[in-house]
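Hi all, long-time lurker, first post. I run a small reading group and we've been trying to get comfortable going from sequence to structure in the token notation. Rather than ask abstract questions, I figured I'd post a concrete chain and ask someone more experienced to write out its structure so we can walk through it together at our next meeting. Sequence below, copied exactly:
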Amino acid sequence: MNPAALTRGLADNLPENVFLHENSAVVGFEQAGGIRLTTAKGRLSAPKMILCVNGFADRFGFYPRKLLTFAANASLSRRLTSEEHSALACEKNWALTPVNAFAGITMRYTNDHRLLIRQNIYFNPAMRESEVHRTRIKASHKNLFDQRFPMLPDVNMEYTWTGYICLSQNGSPGFGQIAPDVYASVCQNAVGVTKGTIGGLLAADMACNQDNELIGYMQSLGQPDRVPPRPFLDLGVRAKFAWEIWKSRAEA
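-- Answer (accepted) --
Happy to help. Here is the structure in token form:
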């Protein structure tokens, strides 16, 4: 399953009473007789809100010092030529996920004859990354690619990007009613497609006062634990990850 294709497909097939506003960053949030959001070019008012911004939830004032955000980097090769496709000797697309996703490498061979490599996850509370960093990541992914596919020496990485995942210290999601008229489905602990889908559906049921027995199951998972303040948090997380990477160094 291609998550990007799923997201585009959902956006292209929204019902007529749903409007999608992309590239409209919220710069103001007020709770006064309902919900009021401010963007650079307009305002939006609603009686209720479902917060689905994952690691950005604390920017709205919710889950302070409870969410851990990590950056994940991936690269996608250019499309293989027919000769390169033959050299790879793969007729069907495939995907490999390591036991330890933080230390190992995720690889996929896509339907349009490209190879994807995802490696290098690290703590990034700012959720910002530079082009200089992505250039270094691209070179690193090309090196990993060459080690694993020596029969494809001339295949370069066409795209390199950084995405962000949100974890909690105890593995619990940020779910439920978190303020008057505000509901949340955030912090999917790196299983966004499945946990995010069911969390969003159940948050919508709660906001619409629809009974659903699965809401209780979701609530039984608890809420994210509070984490130490920075810079102690940074030291602890990086030390933990260094240990995980060392333990799983054979996978890298």
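A couple of things your group might point at:
The helical segments are 3-12, 82-88, 131-148, 192-207, 213-219, 232-247.
The mean pLDDT is 92.
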